Please model this.
Amino acid sequence: MYFTGFHCVGCDATYPADRDLLLCERCENLLEADYDYDRIRADLPREGFAQRPHGVWRWVELLPVLDRAKIVTLGEGDTPLLRCDRIAAAVGVDELWVKSDATGNPTGSLKDRSITVSATKAAEFGYRVLACDSTGNKASSVAAYAARAGLGSVVFCPHDTPVPKMAQAIFFGARLIRVRGHYSQINAMYRRLIHSKSVAWYDCGTDNPFRYEGKKTYAYEMAQAFGWDVPDCVVHPASGGMSIAKTWKGFGELRRLGWTERSPRMFGVQAANCGPIARSWAAGADIVAPVEKKPTLASALAAADPGLLGTRALAAIRASGGAAAGISEDEILDSVRLLASEGLFIEPSGAVTIAGVRRMVAAGQITRGERVVCVVTGSGFKDFERLQEMVTIPEKVVEGYDEMLAEAQSV
Model:
């Protein structure tokens, strides 16, 4: 194996590869996985990856697994990368691509990229139950991968989580516990529960350093799809910010291995009604401060206090020369409609990147001639009730061929 262990991003403490751990035991900061990049570069030519089966696990040497026989997979990853010229024209760029985890992952969201890794580690460590706190998508994914592994699952969600997300988790066998309050409040209580060790569950939540690594595969897939070149700009929705931080790490690994020559600029998009990363970026802060949560259609992004992970995402945005933006509720709806014009049915939380590009073009942070990739992260079926409000179902019902013909001729 090429996974060598972890180091702490705060105090540089190191931990061996076989440790079952969450945060740094010395300073309680985040942990970063390390690999033997020299061996990978020597042993694995980049062209060989094209011959492997599709999915997250084609990159197994760059993931923190020790026993490949324990891999828990539902065929996640290698999601569609679609050129969308109508959207590009609408937002002011010449070349825009949509990376759709909404249409290419087993449970219909980005969470499958990371939960496949945490479920695999749970199997390696011998756990019997997976657990998480979630605004909905992570809960569905944890439940699905637990079912795939033959494990139990327990998920904690805000009481107002969209019904389709709760139903999906329950359908896969999860014990779903609804908690009154917004996500950041629930996250604090859930982390207290897990760290108290009063339950013998494997945490698939925000502190899990193994889980993070699955998100790097965005970078690998984009680079391979573009012939080992990279986009100029990668635009992610941001809740806690894991996807931004880890995609940035993935592009850095590709350069370290000599497989690409450059890295893109990273952009994060949040709802203005709950946008702590965007607000901290605009203020020039180095640390993401909590904000007051206001109602937003982008419910899956409504982490009012993303904590250490948000600060890591902010650092990635700055290091890459990117930017962050908080967009309005009207802009969110417009993004959903623009994606629909290309045949993509995306939940509001996953659609925000489209409006983010338009905003950043207007601000001069993205230029017309750049290649832009927008990641969209969740299927519209995950938040169907909100999207149903955007359409009107005809009340009229025709009977027989003559009425059907008359109706057809009126089109």
Summary: DSSP finds 16 helices and 13 strands in the chain.
